[in-house]
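#lab-general

N.A. 3:47 PM
ok so I finally got the sequence cleaned up, no stray characters, all 496 residues accounted for. can someone with queue access submit it? mine expired

B.Y. 3:52 PM
send it over

N.A. 3:53 PM
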Amino acid sequence: MDITPHLPALQVVVPLLAAPLVLLLRPRGLAWAGATSVAVLSFCIALSMAVDVAQGAHFRYAMGGWEAPYGIELSIGAFSALVLLIVSGAAAFSLLAARHSVDRQIEDERQPLFYAAWLLALAGLAGIAVSADAFNIFVFMEISSLASYVLIAGGPDRRALPSVFKYLIMGTIGATFYLIGIGLVYMMTGTLNLADMEARIGDVTDVKPIMVAAGFITIGLALKAAVFPLHVWLPNAYTHAPHMITVFLAACATKVAIYVLIRFDFFVFQANLPGHHLQFSFFLLPLALLGILVASAVAMFEGNLKRLLATSSVAQIGYIILGASFLTEAGLTASAVHLFNHALAKGGLFLAVACLACHYRDLRLDQLAGAARNMPLTAAAMVVSGFSLIGIPGTAGFISKWLLISAALDEGPYAWVLVAIILASSLMALVYIWRILETLYFRPAMTAPEQPGEAPLPLLGVTLIVALANIGFGLFPQFPLSLSSAAAELLLRHTL
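B.Y. 4:20 PM
back already:
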């Protein structure tokens, strides 16, 4: 029996059904093994579909045999395949590396609950990527959000509780705004299927409710995506979450919200509302530039390693939004590629942080002085991933930065201003990454590690693999580039 047609459903069903089963795996390590196996299987499913999509395939799946628009449809094209690859890859690699870190931070009796919540977050994020129905995107958004709140608050750091409360409030406001927008669109079109919605909006005579809906949906998803200045929940949430949860969420959570924002706006609104493409660009482009500059400046002076990297994520989100706001194929390609490349760079950096945390409880920079002498491989992984975040040639980050600069050069009289800001922010990234490397390599040690040596082999091995992937996809970027280019072409096709 060929299961290929059923892969879109299995992408969500497998982790969703496995989550309650993991709760029953009580012996130490068994819950981790079960959750990791499911995440790896999910990654294999996503990779299989991404390879087919890169060759021109498009997956459509009608749940229960009910065809859209009456039934629930799952749809996977180039853009969603790329996002699925990021989500499932982040889950698989972070879980492969997670056991030692989770054993240190989560009590044995709570670990099955913790891993079950992790699988629910994976199922929710994957469901958002595959769903072709606006309301089901909301349902999966809530599943992933509620699971993420549990995961962030599940560690030993009590500062995570006020952080997750702020995240909950901001996330609830974002989801409510999104739901209000969906309600307005449904009121005017009578459908929740995105393709059907796109077809019917063109027949709506009074577009004012649709314009209001576009505003609600854009702001709601911008909150979820931590677009500047709606990012205030992100630094504390990433800083105080368990280390491997930071790896997972930093690599994929905000990117899924950006995916929904871009997909919804290009597929539904820009294709039907005259002048909306300019409103989209004029609204998001200044926010992207401010986010890039302000977040980079704040990161330059941050003293806590996790908070520094979390703050820099706001700037990287700015790059992604900036490319989309150009409304060109080159800009959208750069934006999609940076979704993938930033996941690699930031995932590698936070994995290196998790390695450091094995022997250094305090992650303030001054307490990590000289750590490279005790953990040279971890420090090397930090160097490679940091270079990718900056955009040094030969790394994955260089590819997306180069594409973004190339797209900016096509933006008319303001092109050099955009390029200057991108280059200035890259220099600012060089400053804060250099602060980290200088501390690790060149400053005398102020505190001794709890025990000398590297992190446990599984954690260190995954960290090195992800770091090397930053070089691999920097030298051979064809696969993510082909998916990103196809995604950009598809998005623009809906706006012509």
